[in-house]
Each structure stands twice: as C-alpha cells, then as structure tokens.
From TrEMBL:
Pfam families: Indigoidine_A. InterPro entries: Indigdn_synthA-like, PsuG. GO terms for cellular component: cytoplasm. SUPFAM superfamilies: Indigoidine synthase A-like. Keywords: Glycosidase, Hydrolase, Lyase, Manganese, Metal-binding. It comes from Anopheles quadriannulatus. This is Pseudouridine-5'-phosphate glycosidase. Coiled coil: none annotated.
Length: 364
C-alpha cells in the first residue's frame, strides 16, 4: 500500500475544502491512510464502482468465525457484481481502505491479543494516536469513505435514536455523519433495537434523503423485519433509479447523504411480534447490568442472538450479503451513468421481487 498514492487520490478525487487563506480544513490527512492496490486502481479509473464496507460488524457485530466468513463472502459478492469492495478499518493506528485477508482475520479474532476499539468520529484520534486497532462504525466509515471519494457504502443497519432517547439523549453519531457526508448508505434500515420513527425525524432534520428499495408503499425496513411501520419519503425500484439519485446528489453539491432501505430477504425475516418481545427483554437486561453508550448495541445484538437461538445472527448475515449485492449493482450503474457507457450494468429489473426472493442471500 502506498501512502503517496493515497495522498494523490485524496487531492484528485475529492479535493480539499480550503479557507480564503488557502489552509486545509475538515479533511483527514492523506499521510494517515493506506489504500489497497485494488481499491487504489479503481479510485483512479472508475471511483463510482467502489463500495465501502464497515468493520464494526467484524469486530463487534458477530462472533468468530461467522464474522470473518461473512466479511469474506460480502467482499466476494461485491466483486461478482463487477464492483470493488473497500473494507475500512484502523490497523496498528493507521486507516486502511481495503483489507488483506490476514488483516480481516486479525480484526475478527477476539483472542488475537489486540482487541479492536469500536471507532466512531470521537474515537478516531485516540485509536490512531495510541496505535490500536479499530472497527469503524457507520459514522467512522462514512468519514473515511467521503475523504477518499467513495460514494456507495453497504452495511447491515444504521444507528439511530435509542429508545427513551428523549430521556437519555442517546443518539447515534451515524445520523450526524450522514448529514455531513454525501455518501449513499445501503442498509436494511435502522436497527430494530432503536426508536425508528424518531430516527427518521432526526434524519429529515439533517437533510438526509431516506428511501425504501423495492417497496411500492414506501415501507421502511426494520433490520430483522421487512417493515418498521414507518414510511420512507420515496421508493426506488431499481439500481438505475438509485444511481441517478446519487449522481444528482453530487451534481447539486449537497453535503448530506442518502439512506437506501433494503428489506431483509423474506425467507430470513423475523416475526415482528417475537422480535419486539426479545428486544424488550434484552434492553431490560442492559439496563440492569448498567451497560450504556457505545457498548449498548453490541450487547443487545448478542443478547438477541442468544434469545432467538441464533436465528437473528442468521438473519444478520443474510441481510448484509443482500445489501452488499444491491450496493454493488448501484455502484456499477453509477459508473455507467457518469462514464457515459451505453451498456447497462448487470442488475435485476424488479427490486421488489429480488429482495423478496432473497437473491444474494446465503442458501441454507
């Protein structure tokens, strides 16, 4: 990995925000970023085709070896659609855009002797200054993706306003970063353990365009379940529709992101009533044990997996793979639109049928 190449890419593909005095502002120094050769080449020639992937799902979202297997499969799914995966993390105090297999394995193994820190914007300086490893959250990944010029990002679910957030003021930094970074985030909506209606209101205030994908009635998904009971502002029916929105977002110079809510494949969807009961029990356990802050989400996801006897973990793996496929299709279509190709990218014609049938999800 070449640090000089990273510097050149940041200056050419993203540019710097400069004040009237010519000083740089609000950009990560390129000397702190290592870009993998595969990603570097794509950013030079077809930057639209790169799909960012977060690493907290590896370090804190799933147990080993499911986390490693899922990370490798997700990258392969992105490549199969003709796009380029760029898993983002901090390794040894350096930002990595694109990880080697041994780096993925290092982050995945809790017994490696180098426990990774769950890294959002607030944690980044500490993690890097102390030479630690960090699994980047949605917010942390957005920050880096925007800095190097990646415009599509696939994840499982975004953070949001926590339940009883009006009392605790616990609001995920993901929402703030979405209002700052013009990156399209393909996810299965907001994690079910959160207050989804309030999260959507907060995103609206931040100027974030929220859409459903393949849902004629604009039903916004709820991670483990296909519907949250809340509506998105708009619905996208295909990767072409989504790519056009991403393209126009940039043409308008908007500095806010886009959330594309892709429902979990139907065969892996959980029962909403069952999940609500399980989540309520897990939240109660967290409160009794005094767990708060950034440790809440990993604790509850783990508790939910135990309470559902592994069903929620299977659902989690299925939805992230499906989201990676959708994100890759959008990225390839964006490259086609912006580079003037006359050949349509490989994609399904009916997004609703696609997600309902579980295309791109693991076969059990």
């Amino acid at each position: 990995m070449l640090r000089i190449a990273a510097a050149a890419l940041l200056r050419s593909s993203r540019g710097y925000c400069t004040s009237k005095h010519g000083t740089t502002q609000d950009r990560i120094s390129p000397s702190l970023i290592d870009i993998a050769p595969e990603v570097r080449d794509a950013l030079r020639h077809t930057p639209q085709s790169v799909v960012a992937l977060e690493s907290t799902i590896i370090t804190h979202g799933m147990p080993y070896p499911h986390n490693l297997d899922t990370a490798l499969e997700v990258e392969q799914i992105v490549r199969q659609q003709g796009a380029v995966p760029a898993t983002i993390a901090i390794v040894g105090g350096r930002i990595k855009v694109g990880l080697a297999v041994e780096q993925l394995r290092l982050l995945a193994r809790a017994d490696s002797g180098t426990q990774a820190v769950k890294t959002s914007r607030r944690d980044m300086a500490f993690v890097m200054a102390t030479g630690r490893n960090g699994g980047t959250t949605v917010a942390g990944t957005l920050l880096v993706a925007d800095a190097v010029g990646i415009r599509i990002f696939a994840t499982g679910g975004i953070g949001g306003v926590h339940r009883e957030g009006e009392r605790t003021m616990d609001v995920s930094a993901d929402l703030i970063e979405l209002g700052r970074c013009p990156v399209a985030v393909v996810s299965s909506g907001v994690k079910s353990i959160l207050d989804i209606p309030r999260t959507l209101e907060y995103l609206e205030t931040q100027g974030v365009c929220v859409t459903s994908y393949g849902s004629e009635d604009c039903e916004f998904p709820a991670f483990y379940t296909r519907s949250s009971g809340s509506k998105a502002a708009y619905n996208l029916t295909s990767a072409t529709d989504a790519a056009k929105i991403v393209h126009m977002n940039r043409a308008l110079g908007l500095r806010s992101g886009i959330v594309i809510g892709v429902p979990i494949p139907e065969r892996y969807a959980m029962d909403a009533t069952e999940m609500n009961a399980v989540i309520a029990q897990a939240l109660g356990d967290a409160e009794r044990k005094g767990i708060y802050g950034k440790e809440v989400t990993p604790f509850i996801l783990s508790a939910v997996s135990q309470l559902t006897r592994g069903k929620s973990l299977e659902s989690n793996m299925a939805l992230i793979k499906n989201n990676a496929r959708v994100a890759a299709e959008i990225a390839v279509e964006l490259a086609r639109i912006e580079n003037g190709s006359s050949t349509p990218a490989k994609q399904c014609n009916n997004a609703k049928l696609d997600t309902a049938n579980g295309v791109g999800a693991p076969v059990s």
